[in-house]
Specification:
single chain, 186 residues, mainly beta, eight-stranded antiparallel beta barrel, 13% helix
Length: 186
């Protein structure tokens, strides 16, 4: 009996130290890109299809994120512009159908996630980026009958760093990527 009790305690201790795994909720996840259009106004587009996961251990303040963005889901409100962005002049969606972000480190301030560092791959180029997290929260969701976490964050990149600098500087080379992510515990 003592051996069984010790084994159960050991197993429960091991699981409490492990990170919880969450699956990205594609219905509540969005990625926007914001740019200056010919010096006239800020414009934005979005991607509508996402997948991925996150692992989170708030006790030990650690975690990991992988977000895949389906390039073919780009939407700007203009079919001609969408087609242009999908072409080889920009995303080259036929050759590179996915944008990928993989975290390398997470930073907490107390229990609040404040920054996620990682590598962003667009086309065939990878660059280190830091996502500044403006909001982060986890809670029990009655709708799913399990925990869910959500976060909002953004980073700034240069299109030209990823081989998409066409029309710069008239269309800003520097753009803001904004992420709204929700994920459901597996």
């Amino acid at each position: 009996m003592k051996i069984l009790t010790a084994l159960l305690l050991l197993l429960s201790a091991g699981t409490s130290l492990a990170a919880d795994r969450y699956r990205i909720d594609p219905e509540h996840t969005a990625t926007r890109f914001i740019y200056m259009h010919w010096g006239l106004s800020q414009q934005q587009g979005k991607f509508e299809k996402h997948s991925g996961w996150l692992e989170l251990d708030t006790t030990n303040r650690s975690g990991a994120v992988e977000l895949q963005i389906d390039v073919s889901s780009v939407r700007t409100g203009t079919a001609l512009f969408d087609k242009t962005l999908l072409s080889s002049a920009f995303f080259d969606a036929e050759r590179y159908p996915q944008i990928l972000f993989r975290s390398t480190a997470v930073q907490f301030d107390g229990e609040q996630l404040k920054q996620v560092d990682g590598v962003l791959r667009i086309r065939d180029t990878e660059k280190a980026v830091s996502l500044k997290i403006s909001h982060f929260h986890c809670r029990w969701m009655l709708l799913y009958l399990r925990n869910a976490c959500g976060a909002n964050g953004e980073t700034t990149i240069k299109r030209s760093d990823f081989g998409m600098g066409r029309y710069a500087p008239f269309v800003s080379d520097e753009i803001t990527l904004s992420f709204d992510i929700e994920a459901i515990r597996e």
